[in-house]
Amino acid sequence: MSAMLPRRRGAARFAGVLVASAVVGGGVFASSTAAQADEQIPVTVPTFAADDFIELAAQLPATLREAIERDLGVAPEQYLANAERARAASDAATVLRDRGVDVLGASIDGQTVTINVGSDSDAAAVEATGAQVVVGPLDALKTEREVQPARDHKGGYGYAYQISEPDETGAFDLSRCSVGFSGYDPDGNSRYLTAGHCGVDEATGEQFTYPVHHIELDGPIWATEDWAAEFPGPDLGEFVPGSFHYGNEHDGGLVDITNPDWTAVPQVAGWGGGSGAPDDASVTIRGPIDAVAGAQACKSGATSGWTCGEVLVPVQSTPVGEQNVTGFIFNACMLGGDSGGSVVVGNYALGVNSGSTHDGRTDCDSWNPAQEPNSDGDFSIGYSLATGQYNALTLLGGDWELAVAVATPVVTSPEDGAETGPRPAFTGTVEGARSTHKVSVVVDGETTYEGRVSDDGTFSVAVTDDLAPGEHTYEVTASYGNFSRSETVEGSFTSTEVQAEALTVASPTDGQTTGNARPSFTGTGQPGATVTLTVGDETYGEATVGDDGAWTIEPSADLPVGERFDATVTQSFEGDTQSATVAGLGITVPAVTIAEPEDGATVTGDVTFNGTVYPGAELTLAIEGTVTESSERVQTAADEWAGELEIGEDGAWTFTPDEALQNGEYTLTASAAVEGGDPELTASETSVSFTVAAGDDEGDEDGDELPDTGSSNVWMIVVGVALLALGGAAIAIRARRNGSTA
């Protein structure tokens, strides 16, 4: 942790060293193949080409570019591309968790993203994002190394404070730590995040109440004690009462900046990419990020400045001093006094320095970074800003908001000075912004309209009130949370009366009948307008009119089937609304079918009849035929003939007679209708003719056939109306003979 200063009158001394053992955990990777996801996952993990970041990388300070190449062995543009890929992986994992997927963690290897899940059933959802999937947890850190708290206004600055009352000689104890991330209290006042163990008395567990002072530095402290001789230094602020938590898996606390000379800014001290001045090569913070294994992370701290490494384990509980802290394990060098400092991935805030295997060393020359969770070597633990169950935003989010740099919006429409309709929509982009950001448009300095930024950085904010014709002014501002705001873009536009192109519907037409429950609606209208399809109170889809004035709406669900209805198409454009109604549309229900027997088939007498009918329809079966038989058979024929009719939920029906049909020629007719429906749309009928040739059931010894009397006998077998319901229904079938034999 820290070194001890000699006791002398008027001087200060450090607190003692804390020592703890590292936790030993384990995990096994298991491979899995998964089917296509059953539901659409509204997130993908895009790849980012390093060439797209060359311009941004060139804007980094030279010393910071050198540090990236030195510590990470990659080009600065590749580092920025990998940081965006890590952010995309973090976002995807969050969306999957929100949709009930058991995400155990995520990892990145260059541009390859892997998401770990708890079971095979979750694999398909991950694959739908484009990421690789592993069933089982990520490997945990396995080591016997001891972890010590890395004690210690931009993030990474150093601060010092008294931790005891002066004794009889006037000597008192001092401690120092590093600033994590600047932010705001609920009233918008400057407040920063740091490590929880920095503000807690290790012996009593009580929070310190002494003032906090800024440490003026020209470079990292390393082993020097010069800072102590300058104590107390400039006033900075005070510990926020009750905010410091050390143990029970947490290590976070808050410090109010009460000196008006200091203002929270969304930056982290870059230390010249290593051992330079703290303000040399500062890094701008654009938002939080979850820990992803393999992400390239850099830490800032007052003792060792700027060092970089790789995240080995995204979430793990580790003893830090006498307490367990849950955080991410990474292999950047961290020394005593770096505690509370910033850990970033690119421009994104990952967490604050908590502890490391520094063993009291005062430089990073002998730091041997662990290369994987199961290897020996030095490692550090960071307390996460947002990752997992135990994190700073969950613990302190009600009392602190991260300060974020928000890029100035670029308004693409309307152009400055352009003419618009009475309800213009403001569109544009905000570099680096996501759905966590908002855009506000103030018209004429009075009315404010707001909208969310999309994850691709685009926005669209509509004016929802009709503006009077004439010139208007606008102010567009992007924001994050309640207090991080961009610069304001100002401009003007002229509102005019809308002369929108007339809405027309080309297809379908009034009274049209179709068997397609989702027919395409096509027509023409005002380019850029939104057209919406409704039936009654239900919306079935929308589209944007193309530049050529054409539009097509594909219904998102089945339209009403079996009854006539009116469909309405509405066009909206800058306050102008037009509607067109297609009257009397009809969607026919699928026709009843007979699958067995087939038309013209020859079957045995114990035939089973089956087919399909529209669910909810009434089914009627009728059979008639001519039976050739002896008078003896006619006399013994049954007057009643029973059977069982079963109809499934999907409309599949089966009729099984209790007794076999006699040899002869038959015609089976099936008809269906929907009660209360339009017969033109719901009624259908089909027939099949078939022959029953069951053989000589009586077994004539001479093998002679029964004589053909030449008379025609017709059996009328009518199945009563059967309402489709769950399960089936047994229906008695009565038969009556017509005619007689000679």
TrEMBL record:
Sequence ranges assigned to domain Gram-positive cocci surface proteins LPxTG in this UniProt record: 704-738
GO molecular function terms noted in the UniProt entry: serine-type endopeptidase activity
Alphabetical UniProt keywords: Cell wall, Membrane, Peptidoglycan-anchor, Secreted, Signal, Transmembrane, Transmembrane helix
Region (Disordered): 508-528
UniProt record, GO biological process: carbohydrate metabolic process; proteolysis
Signal peptide annotation: 1-37
Residue span, Bacterial Ig-like domain: 504-570
Matches recorded under Pfam families: Big_13, Gram_pos_anchor
Keyword Secreted: yes
Transmembrane segments annotated in the record for this chain: 714-733
Entry-linked InterPro entries: Big_13, Ig-like_fold, LPXTG_anchor, Peptidase_S1_PA, Peptidase_S1_PA_chymotrypsin, Streptogrisin_prodomain, TAT_signal, TRYPSIN_HIS
NCBIfam families tied to this protein: Ca_tandemer, LPXTG_anchor
Protein name: LPXTG-motif cell wall anchor domain-containing protein
Lineage per the UniProt record: Bacteria, Bacillati, Actinomycetota, Actinomycetes, Jiangellales
